[in-house]
Structure formats: structure tokens, C-alpha cells
Amino acid sequence: MSPLTAKIAARQYALASQGLLRRRQALAVSPPAQPQACAGPRFVLEGKSFLNFSSNDYLGLSLEPALADALHLAAKRYGVGSGASPLVTGYSEAHQALEQHLCVLTGHEAALLFCSGFSANGALMKTLFDAQDTVLADKLVHASVIDGLRDSGATLKRFLHNSTEGAGRLLARHGAAALITESVFSMDGDIAPLAELSALCRQHGSWLIVDDAHGFGVLGEQGLGANALCQEADAAGVDVQVITFGKALGCQGAAVLGSRELIDFLVSNAREYIYSTALSPANAALALAASRFALDNPQLLAGLTENIGCFTRLCREAKVPLLASATAIQPVIIGDATKTMAVAQALRELGLWVGAIRPPTVPAGSARLRLTLSARHTRADIEFCVAALSQVLTQAGGPKS
Ligand code: PMP
Predict the structure, then answer these.
(1) Residues in domain Aminotransferase class I/classII large (predicted)?
(2) Could you tell me the pTM of the whole model?
(3) I need a surface site. Which of 80, 337, 399, 401 has the fewest CB within 10 A?
């Protein structure tokens, strides 16, 4: 056995012995025949149909027929690929139109598109910071931010999750080039105190950088995300906002939004941008169409809000313990990773698919079911989901036992 093969085998064995091996399953997903008759998001796995409470497709746009048509038209018009990196010939009027649209919506001066939120966060952190910088980040920020910061060489200080006080203490002690948080936290579903954090950053001359992956499309009155939410609260605002198109917009790609100087700086220096094939123009046109579709159909966001309210109320009545989340992300903390997998499996046997999230994605001892709501869930779907949760958690002896 070669040394590398032996290393891989040893690492996989170690993961397997802790019950932490991950595997993929190829699902059969297809749009409903009649969108109006759409009976909740479902997929088929090994011949069995599952009700999906684990997708980030909060507005149900990924299967929207009008957007499939928009993608088809855009592919006909622009081709199916960008053909080059952006600084060669990969940047087109479709990309520019999306950037301009996003700037108008979010109130930022300029935008830069990436193929994924992971690369957008990585590029931003690595390009903006270096070993001279100290950066503060919430304890629960996404892996892409942490990886990017580690690669940047900056000194990273973490503050207690959502604690403005904790962040303030660190800022007073160390100063910082920037403070980084998420708008809606991907695993807890709670919302950062953005207005307070923006005031704090202004006071200390630090930038506020917000990973708005789970906020853009659903956060704020019109779903315009982190900066708009600050503006609604008359707060100072967000200096840099990273949004992704793979969550509420139901498609793919991401954007960094900020000042013209920042975006020009990234264009000239961000290696992920310079040396990678640009997002396809068809995908840029699709993200623009999806954003417009969401704005033109406010009943989707209203329906999601209603579904969140219905789900949390039914869980309260059924004594299913939730975290304090008012968003589409609704975790049920189980604690033990093996028990979490067993509970998720029992739910699957009832036809309900929820995410089972274990360390290292979440802190040790906080393995959980991560349920997510969609505008497309029906009242019957939500009632079924809560009844199944209640039954399985009772059989398992309660979430924390
Ligand atoms: N930030 C957060 C908070 C996320 O949850 C994710 C996706 N899991 C990303 C960034 C990365 O976005 P993308 O899926 O577009 O790579």
C-alpha cells in the first residue's frame, strides 16, 4: 500500500469509528407537473418519496418553471458557458446586468460575481487581509470564512455568538480591521444584531462584513438582505455583503457587494476571480430572473413567513423543543451525534427528510436536526412534519436524553 493510500484508509477508518463518515445519495428531483398544484417539495430516493424539510430553497424557486424557461432562453442567447475567466473574455453584459441589479437592491456601489459563496468568501478574506491585520469573527461563522482567514495569515479573534458586548470588548482591547458575522446563521437560524454591530464598527473604525448567504432573498421586509435590514432600522449599514444565489434564489453563484474601491481592488487581486472560469452568463441571467421573480411574487416571502409561524406554533403545542429562531432554519438540538443520525433515520422511515448535522459542522455535543421551511410547504406538510417529529422524539426518549 502506498503511503498516501495508507493515510487515506487510516483517516477514513478514524471517521468511521466515530460514526462521522459522510456519504452522498443521488436523489430524483423533478418539477411538479402543474406549479399551482405543487404539493410541497419532495424527492425520490431508491423508489421512495420523501417530503423535503432540509433544502435551502426557501422560496421554492429551484423548481420554478418560469425560471427554467429563463435559463433556457439565456443559454440560447449567451451560450451555455462563459468560455474564459472574467478578465479574459468571460465577463459579459449578462454579468454586468446582474451586478447592477444587485447594487440597486442592496444599496452597495459595486458588485463582483463568483461561482459559489464558498469561493466568494475565500477570495474576499484572502485578498483583503494579511498578517498585519487583526479580524474579529462570530464563533459560528461559516467554514469558508474561517478557511479564507486562515489562508490570509490575519490574526483571528472570535467573539461569543451574537454578542455585541463580547465583540465590543475585543474591539476595545485589540482593535480590528473588520468584524465578520452572518446575517442569518446557517446552523442556528438566528439573526445577528446587525444594527448594533454596525454602530460598534463605526465607533472603532472597523469594517462590518456580513455573510448574507441565508439572508438575501428572505431577510427584511422585501427580502433584500443585511444592508437593507440595517437601512430599515436607520443603522449605519454593512460595508461588505456576500450573497449567494444557491439558497433563496434557488440557483447558483454568489456576489461580493461593497464600495467601488473594494470591488476594483478584488478585480485586480483576487486569485479566485482572476484565475477561474467566470460564472456562465446563462447562470448570471438566471440569478437576475430569480431575483426579479422573487420581487414580483411577494406572496412567496409572505407564504414562507406564514409557514415559519405555523411550524413554530405547532412545535410549541407538540412540545418539540426549538432554538430561538424566527427564520426558515429551525434546528432541534439532540446533542449526541449517533442519536441524531438515528432520529433522522426514523423520520426518513416515515417519509420525512430533515438534515442531520454533526460535528465538526456544529460544535461538539450540539448535533442536531436542521429543519428548513419553504414557501412551497403546505399546511398539511407542516402538520405531518411536526407530528412525525413529536412521535420520533418521544420514542427516542426526548431530544436531550
Ligand atoms: N456562507 C454560508 C453561511 C453558507 O451556509 C454557505 C453554504 N453552505 C456558504 C457561505 C457557501 O455558499 P455556496 O453554497 O454558494 O458555496
Answers:
(1) 50-388
(2) 0.95
(3) 401
